[in-house]
What we know:
This protein is of the alpha/beta class. It contains 5 helices and 7 strands. The mean pLDDT is 96. This is 7-methyl-GTP pyrophosphatase.
Amino acid sequence: MPQLILASTSRYRQELLARLRLPFEAVAPEVDETALPSEAPAALAERLALAKARVVAARFPGAIVIGSDQVADLGGEAIGKPGTHEAATAQLRRMSGREVVFQTAVAVVAPGLAAIERAEVRVRLRELSDAVIETYLRADKPYDCAGSAKVESLGIALLEAVESDDPTALIGLPLIRTCTLLRRAGLEPLA
């Protein structure tokens, strides 16, 4: 089996990929994640996923490399990882009662292949009071998550609905699409 590499240091993506029970190594891609001027959130996610996979593939010839990126899209504006409590509070206030579209792209780069797919997850947040936001942030501390909420944890209580055809996409790695791309690279997860 060729070497499988996840071009990410995200613990969330590593946990998701581990579900496939394939041996893999996680490698930091060291890619500048700054959006280009006027770059749409979906295009940003796709560009970064492919860039991460390509950078790591160049260091590991012959490997199958997975790159992924997620951008929260609030009315056409990219919403990133908040990093701080204050930024997360501001994000959740802006998102309260609104729909946020999470654009999650996954790319696989392998000998003879550079392919990308994107999953879109529509999330409707309920109306959030400042007290609810503060309680949630103190409990979950989602400062490393785009959109300031962890749906796989207490963040689910902030939501009214989630719509997607690839349920793991919201956590950061769309596994249905990842399996499709791995098969295209010659790696069958169920072999």
